[in-house]
């Protein structure tokens, strides 16, 4: 029997996850120690409890037949939507977002974390059931609806970081499900333009200070209805031209015009839904010195911590940025900054190496899965973990905007740990059953 098949699961991905969680516990402990050596936080104990529960769930999900999850996925998904609605109405506000279910003073969990894996399971089932109509626009719109519903509810909390995770979940799943690439390109282009147009007014006000005619049209909302109307008219005319003459330039003109129209609509909704501080986070990413005592403080202190670690770091429990509490949310969003400061480049490289093992083994599991459903679900999980890793580590280094996304297996948070370990359990299950089809 090969080592990777021992006990029916991929031992390499499992051990890498264990190593990441052990490192996480160490630095959650470090984040709760003051400069005088006093331990003022018991978060590391809570994390150990969450890991213990999560490992049990991981092992439970790694056995059995994961295809049964697909058969029940719609009911799980709808139950998750109902819980999100309940949270939106009765949930507890933490860090500005009504995202928690509580019993008294006890935080039961953050349903949006679990909703990620529920969406992955149902989206995979939907794509699998519609394999013969995957190229139809109706299938595309229905699959987008599966992702848009939880995204919208989470944005209303508001929790932009968690909502954004559903984007790579969809793109990775749709790519493996063989959704036409032009559809995916359209979605990526529209999303990118929506973000640019959504932050452009604040960006121009804070950084560009450009009074040009073009910038004025793009930043003043009073012009947007006219721009949307022009884009829609161009789309209609291009569609007529394509139907009449079958020229590709009509197709692509309409393609970009329709994308522009949707982007302006999305940017308008983005400005209405997101809070000012969330938009400012995106602006500060471009220039942290705009608000060095406010939103920019996070990035400046994180970059300072990462840069001061050097090659070997200052030593465990010796980080000044964390010990003197200069780093905000240092046990959750910015835990990688503590690792980089105390363990230096070597520790940072170790974290990246362990995540690389997890992601590469995840890709291997997708590649070797014998059924379509397993491949799509595996892709959704890999996309979710990849996005979490890139955005979290990127924002601590100042190359990604602050979005409040935790580092899987490492950051403090019971809901995040449970979701991540359940996801790994499903990946292990797909690997175990690769010869059963």
Automatic annotation (TrEMBL):
Keywords, ordered alphabetically: Cell membrane, Cell shape, Cell wall biogenesis/degradation, Glycosyltransferase, Membrane, Peptidoglycan synthesis, Transferase, Transmembrane, Transmembrane helix
Domain of life (superkingdom): Bacteria
Its membrane topology: Multi-pass membrane protein
Record bears the keyword Ribosomal protein: no
GO cellular component: cell division site; plasma membrane
MF GO annotations: lipid-linked peptidoglycan transporter activity; peptidoglycan glycosyltransferase activity
Primary location class: membrane
Catalysed transformations (reactions): [GlcNAc-(1->4)-Mur2Ac(oyl-L-Ala-gamma-D-Glu-L-Lys-D-Ala-D-Ala)](n)-di-trans,octa-cis-undecaprenyl diphosphate + beta-D-GlcNAc-(1->4)-Mur2Ac(oyl-L-Ala-gamma-D-Glu-L-Lys-D-Ala-D-Ala)-di-trans,octa-cis-undecaprenyl diphosphate = [GlcNAc-(1->4)-Mur2Ac(oyl-L-Ala-gamma-D-Glu-L-Lys-D-Ala-D-Ala)](n+1)-di-trans,octa-cis-undecaprenyl diphosphate + di-trans,octa-cis-undecaprenyl diphosphate + H(+)
Pathway note: Cell wall biogenesis; peptidoglycan biosynthesis
EC number from the UniProt entry: 2.4.99.28
Membrane spanning stretches: 12-32, 44-63, 75-94, 100-125, 137-156, 162-179, 184-203, 223-242, 249-270, 343-364, 376-403, 409-430
A Pfam short name: FTSW_RODA_SPOVE
Matching PROSITE patterns: FTSW_RODA_SPOVE
Location in or out of the cell: Cell membrane; Membrane
Gene Ontology BP annotations: cell division; cell wall organization; peptidoglycan biosynthetic process; regulation of cell shape
Function in brief: Peptidoglycan polymerase that is essential for cell wall elongation.
Family: Belongs to the SEDS family. MrdB/RodA subfamily.
Record-given protein name: Peptidoglycan glycosyltransferase RodA
Origin species: Marispirochaeta aestuarii
Gene: rodA
């Amino acid at each position: 029997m090969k080592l990777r098949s021992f006990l029916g699961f991929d031992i390499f991905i499992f051990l890498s996850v264990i190593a990441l969680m052990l490192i996480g516990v160490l630095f959650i402990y470090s984040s709760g120690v003051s400069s005088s050596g006093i331990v003022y936080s018991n978060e590391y104990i809570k994390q150990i409890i969450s890991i213990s529960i999560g490992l049990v769930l991981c092992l439970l999900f790694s056995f059995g037949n994961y295809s049964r999850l697909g058969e029940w996925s719609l009911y799980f998904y709808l139950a998750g939507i109902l819980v999100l609605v309940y949270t939106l109405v009765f949930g507890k506000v933490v860090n500005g977002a009504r995202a928690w279910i509580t019993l008294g003073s006890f935080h039961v969990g953050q349903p949006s974390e679990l909703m990620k894996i529920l969406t992955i399971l149902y989206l995979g089932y939907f794509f699998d059931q519609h394999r013969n109509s995957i190229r139809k626009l109706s299938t595309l719109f229905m699959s987008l609806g599966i992702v848009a519903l939880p995204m919208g509810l989470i944005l209303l909390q508001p929790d932009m970081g968690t909502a954004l995770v559903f984007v790579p979940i969809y793109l990775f799943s749709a790519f493996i499900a063989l959704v036409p690439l032009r559809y995916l390109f359209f979605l990526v282009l529209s999303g990118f333009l929506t973000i640019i147009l959504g932050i452009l007014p604040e960006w121009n006000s804070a950084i560009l200070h450009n009074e040009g005619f073009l910038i004025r049209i793009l930043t003043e909302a009073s012009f947007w209805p006219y721009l949307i109307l022009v884009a829609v008219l161009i789309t209609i005319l291009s569609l007529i031209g394509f139907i009449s003459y079958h020229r590709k330039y009509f197709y692509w003109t309409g393609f970009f015009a329709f994308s522009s129209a949707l982007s302006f609509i999305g940017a308008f909704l983005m400005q209405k839904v997101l809070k000012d501080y969330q938009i400012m986070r995106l602006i500060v990413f471009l220039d942290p010195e705009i608000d060095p005592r406010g939103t920019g403080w996070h990035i400046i202190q994180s970059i300072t911590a990462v840069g001061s670690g050097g090659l070997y770091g200052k030593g465990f429990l010796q980080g000044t940025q964390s010990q003197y509490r200069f780093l905000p949310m240092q046990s959750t969003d910015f835990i990688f900054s503590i690792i980089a400061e105390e363990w230096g480049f070597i520790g940072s490289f170790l974290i990246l190496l362990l995540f690389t093992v997890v992601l590469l083994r995840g890709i291997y599991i997708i590649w070797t899965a014998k059924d379509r459903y397993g491949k799509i679900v595996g892709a959704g999980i890999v996309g979710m973990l990849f996005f979490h890793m890139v955005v979290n580590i990127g924002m601590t280094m100042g190359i990604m905007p602050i979005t409040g996304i935790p580092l899987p297996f490492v950051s403090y948070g019971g809901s995040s740990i449970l979701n991540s370990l359940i996801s790994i359990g499903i990946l292990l299950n797909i690997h175990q059953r690769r010869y059963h089809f």
